[in-house]
Each structure stands twice: as structure tokens, then as C-alpha cells.
Amino acid sequence: MKYFLFLFLTALFSLAVRAQEPTAETSLSQKKVPSVKLVDMSGKAVNTADLTLNGPVIISFWATWCAPCKKELNTIHELYEDWVEETGVTLIAIAIDDEKTKSQVAVYVNGKAWDYTVLMDPNWDFKRAMGVNNVPHTFLVDKNGNIVYSHNNYAPGDEEKLYQELLKLSAK
Amino acid sequence: MKKARTLLILLLFNKVAFAQGNITGNMETVFQYLNEDSIINAKQPVQKGLMNSYMNVFYTQGNFKAGMRFESYLPRIQGYPNRFDGTGIGMRYVGYQNDFVDVTLGTFYEQFGTGLALRTYEDRNLGYDNLLDGMRIVLRPGKGFVLKGVYGTQRLSFQQGQIVHSEGLVRGTDAEWHLNEGLAVLKDKKLDVVIGASFVSKFQEDNNPEWILPQNVGAYGGRVKLTYGNFYADAEFIQKEQDPSSDNQYIYNYGHAAIFNLRYTQKGLGILLSGKSVDNMSFRSDRTKDLQDLLINFLPSLNKTHTYNLVATLYPYATQPLGEVAYQADILYTFKKGTQLGGKYGTTLSLNYSTTFRPEQTLNGIDLNDSSRVVYHTRPFTMSDSLYWQDINFNITKKINKKWSGILSYYDIKINNDVVKVSDAQGIIHARIAVLEGTYKINTHHALRWELQGMWVQRNEEGINDKGDWATALVEYTISPGWFFSAMNQYNYGNDDPSKRVNYPIVTCGYIKDATRLTVSYGRQRAGLFCVGGVCRPVPANNGLMINLTHSF
To answer: Which of B23, B42, B153, B352 is the most buried (most CB within 10 A)?
Structure first.
């Protein structure tokens, strides 16, 4: 048993070392969006690996009980039309509300008239796969599924930094 | 020699096959240095310093996946479950997935439907982890059709760096069908339908000398989700077979859990009405366990999750698994820009009402002296007049101009402390809380935010008002995107005992760089209940230094 564990660890370790070698194909900044099957607010299945099929996306993890998350998404809401026009970006809001507050997600999203794509992650499968510790956590992903920027927090003005990163990405 | 050769082959194989994998993960370390503080009854542990850490590493390469989590408690931080110690692997799995099949061997987290029959999940902040260790298979045989099967033992605790498993075994299967994806007739129809059904069974040996206990206990039921334009409805019903346990004092009643949501939404408006009925529904893979241990199912409490600290941690409500009937209404409305109430930027009004009662239990046709040990009779959604919980609250969010924005909130909470037991006080605790929050944006990167909170607790018939009235003030200065500084004080000015009219000041400083976040706080923290979903963890009062580091990769 111990021997197998040792082998398993060695394998994991060695592949971790491989993955960190900054070659042309793999570098630290090129973490990809993992494939997790989620559903949207009406129950339609979505594979998270396909989110970038229509261009770059912002993936923002939030919850109805998270005040800074709502502040961030409400701030971006006022700028969103311009961002879409200039860069073709889509914002995917991942609601990590569990069954206690999951039914309030659509109430909030519609009550605030958000135009985002909202996906439900009630058992935190995608949150775990993306390595999110706490919300808000926002990722910027290029059209090939590579994560190019991420930020774990929200303070007024953070949307400006995200916008700069977005412009850098669309200039490429 | 043989070992070395295997290793070499493995490494070579690795170089070829794993050269282009994808690694994601995260880590967190929490360190506490605690002082003795007799005024707030905070103890200094003998080690003085406490530390929790964990790191997740997930690897995917094509269709192959593997992952693990190291955990370390040296020793565990205050308020964490007392059965966590040592350093080791708390989760590990390998698996394979494509569009048709998804197999996992090892540990996994899974939820059937709304979780009334089965939900395994983790919340590291709470120290909650009821993962299943065994095998899971997910099949997608047709468009919109998902079939799941799980088989395993649950994680009870983590001792000397190793997972401690439950005595019992959990097996389950679940099917869900999104009809509009699967049936040509319903394709592109306005009516959208999802149906599902679950069956979960647990096995535990009957080692009780007193009773003849069922060794296999099943729970089963179905669910439906309907969307029609702006209207939405969902419902799930789960029945549980006879499951005598220490929780229900070894009765042989059946149990049930039912939940429904009705919703109407349009741009600028959301309305929700929810109901829930629970009876004898504590479903654990070990019948002798209690509190948060080895729950197979998840019974969410039907009320809003509040965030301001006085509202969130003094009088929170968690579901009573032995029985309750609950209702909730939630409305959110945004007054449009340019209208009188909307002003220049629009104004959002949110109203929420939730209430929970004890179910009505009768002795109709029940003979308490027979040998059946069926001790009462109840029906779904029939309630008595015994109140467990009530919360009426509203908040108004308004952006006044480019510089100023604010939120005004008010809460009226009644909690039956004979049932919920958040403190030593008896009877119904009735608390009213008002919170005013303001943000002043100094320039693009600098902002100042403040909160003023007051809580007023009414005396009940016995003249008790628990800890009495509280006030909280908070200021926070942020420099985007890297820094924040905050100072908070909580003052229990209305305590009946003058020696307990204590201040709890705390300062926090944080630095954030991309996906890394470091916070350092120093001061006093009030005892309270830290809750996520329906699960709460009591956190004792403490005084000292806390350092928290998180990173994602």
C-alpha cells in the first residue's frame, strides 16, 4: 500500500515538475479552464471547457450572500455594454450558492437586470477545479481557453485593472 | 532494484504522456497566535500558536484526471472540529472522462437533485467534509440524460494525518433527464422540463443489543423542474425508510423531506416563494453519530444568508432534521434610472420573509404500547403553532452620485432558542438590527467604506434578552488592486451583566496580488456561530494575531 502511494506521489510530483517548465507550449500563465459540466438557470447543460468558443470570457465566481461580489458585478454591469462592443468579451457569472440560497440567484440576477451568462455550481465542482479559495474570484480567459489574469478580491477600481488586461488581450 | 526500475519506467512514461497536462489548484494557510483574555473568556492554548493548512492539486491530461489534497493541522485553529490533527492526504482520486462516461476512483463529492437524498461536499472554512471514498460513475447515454451511480464510505474525520472512514456503507443512483434536449417534440418549445429520480441506501451492521435494527436503509424520491417563459417552478420529494438512530431516539417512523420553489422574474424584478417540509430526516451513514457528522443528505434552511456580522453570527438558524415546516418569500425590484425613486442610477429594493414552525404530530391510530415504535403521525406541510424562526428584512441599495453609494438594511428576527440553542437563553429571542453602509470613492483607485450596525434585543416573558444590545462600527480603506486596511469595533453595551459590557476591537491589513491574498489581523473576536448553508460551527471568543494566506494556481 505504502509503496503504491509512494509511486503515485512520485508520478504526481514528476508531472508537476514537468508542467512548470517554461516551454513555449506550457507556462504558468497558461493554465487552462478545466472541463466541468454545469447547468444554467433553467437547467440546460454547459461544459465549462466550451465557454470560450465565442471569444474571450471573464469568469467571475460570486454568491448572493457575498457583498463584494455583488458590488463587482453591479459595477461591471454599468460598463458591460462598452466592454462587449470594444472587445467581444462575454461575462460568465458562476453562482456558488448551495441549495439554501440557489433559488435566490435568478431573483437577484433578473432583479438587477444583468446581461451575464449565469451558471450554477451548487456543489462547488467548478470552484474546486478552478482552485478558488473564496469569492469574489475573477478570471480572464482568452479565446483558446488559457487563463491570462486572475484576481481574488474586489475593491472599487479593480474593474479598471481587469479592463486594462482585457484591452491587452484583445490587442493581441 | 525492481522498485528502481518501475520508478524509471514510470518517470519515462510520464515524460511522454504527461508532458502537456493541465494543473490547477489552490492552497490556504491560517495561523493564529492567541493571548489569554479572561474578560472575554478567551483561552491561550498551551502551544500558543495554531495552524491549519491545505493544498489541492488537480491534474488533467486529455481524458485522464487525478487530484489530491494535503491537509495539515499543527494543531488545528480555534473552533475547528476537535478530531483534526496531523499532516497527510485528505482526498485523492484518479479518473477518466469523455462525453459518454465519467469514472472516478477514490474520493469524490456528489449531489443528487437538491441534496435531500444525498450530498457530499466540503467547506474548509467550516471544517466540514463528508466526502465519499469509493467509486462513482456518471453516464450520459443520450442528449440531456444523465445517469449516476455512487458506492463508498464517508469521511468522518482526519486523525494523525489520515482519513478516518465511517462504519457504514453508502450506495446510490440518480437519473436526470432534460426533456427538451432529449425529445424532438419539445425541442424549442417554450415549456422547459427536467425530471429526475434518486435512490440512496446505506448499510450498517446491527450491533445494538437492545433493538433489532434495519441494516439497510433506503431513501428515494423524485423531482421536477419547469420553466415557462418568465415563470419557473421546481419541487423534490424524498422518503426515507425506517431508520432508528440516536438522533431520533431509535424510533421506527418513516421520514420525509420535501421542497418547492415558485418564481417569476423579468428585467428589474424577481419574486420567489419557497416551501419546505422535513420530518425525521437525519440520514447518516452511522446511526450513532450526531451534530454534523456523517450526514448523507443535505437539508438547507429556508432563509436568507446574511452577511453583516451582527446579523450573521449571533442568531443564525439551521434546519432541524427531526422536523420543521418552513416558508420563504423573496422579492427584488430595481426602480429604473430616471424615475423619481430610481434617480440617476436606479435604486434596488429587496424584501425577504422567512418563517419556520414545528410540524404537527398526532397520535391518530397510534398505540404507543405496541411493539412497532412508530410514535407519532404527521403529514407533509402540516404545521403546529410552535414557532422556530421568523425573519422579516429589507434593504435599499442606492448609488447617489459618482462618489457616494450606500445600503440601508433592517432585520426583525425571532429565534426559538429552546430548539436552536444558539446560547444559554431560554424561549424566543427577538432581535431587531439596523445597518447603514456607505462607500465614498475618492478616486479611481482609492475608496473608503464604512458600516454602522445596531442590534436591539427585546426582553421575553422571563425577562431575558440573552446578551442584550450590540453596536458595531467598521471603516475600510482600499487601494485598488493591491491593498486594504480595516478597523472594526463591536460593543456589547446592553449586556445585563456590567462586567460583560465589552469592546471587541480588531484591525486588519490585506495585500492582494492577482490570485494571492495575504491578510493579517490583530484584536479581539467575539464568540459566534459561523454558518454556511445549513451547517454552523461555533467559534469561541479569541484575542490575538491571525495571518491568512491563500493562493490559486
So the answer is: B23
